[in-house]
Design goal:
Shape: globular
Order of helices and strands: HEEEHHHHHEEE
Distance between the termini: 34 Å
Strand content: 15-25%
Structural class: alpha+beta
Number of helices: 6
Largest sheet: 3 strands, mixed
Helix content: 40-55%
Strand order of the largest sheet: 1-3-2
Number of strands: 6
Radius of gyration: 16 Å
């Protein structure tokens, strides 16, 4: 959450927890105001907040029409990916490896996200970098879940 709080402060964003939001909606941004549904779990609120910050940083204009507008769908995906990178970082995944976290639940708890969001984040990294890639002297193998090894020198 520290990265989210620092972005909120730097960008002068206002966070509102609004009980009037539809139950299916988790978050919404309008100008510098982010609205989060307080009926969601704390971890889901983190996830929606990260996505809304992603919209603030990457989205141009009104992208509500997702059904017929390919550009709007691309902007939505870009904001979601931005949020995933904010919450589930490669550095953090390395820390999980070093801490001997072996289950999705332990890793999700470390990042304060839900297991489905962790999976979504890993899939985002797979889309961006492929099944196998190296980062900071660690090999990431995402072909069948998450597997991290130190790179041989």
């Amino acid at each position: 959450m520290d990265i989210l709080n620092s972005i909120i402060d730097e960008e002068h964003l206002n966070i509102h927890f609004d009980n009037r939001m539809p139950s299916k909606q988790g978050g919404l941004i309008f100008n510098n105001d982010i609205y989060i549904n307080p009926r969601k779990s704390t971890y889901e609120q983190h996830e929606y907040l990260a996505e809304e910050i992603g919209h603030y940083k990457t989205t141009v204009g009104d992208i509500i029409d997702q059904k017929f507008n390919l550009n709007n769908r691309k902007q939505e995906q870009k904001a979601r990916d931005y949020g995933c990178k904010l919450l589930v970082t490669l550095d953090g995944l390395i820390e999980c490896y070093k801490s001997y976290f072996t289950t999705e639940y332990e890793i999700a708890e470390y990042f304060q996200v839900t297991v489905p969001y962790l999976r979504k984040s890993i899939n985002m990294y797979r889309r961006k970098f492929g099944d196998r890639f190296t980062y900071k002297q660690y090999i990431f193998d995402l072909s069948n879940g998450l597997f991290i090894l130190p790179q041989d020198n």
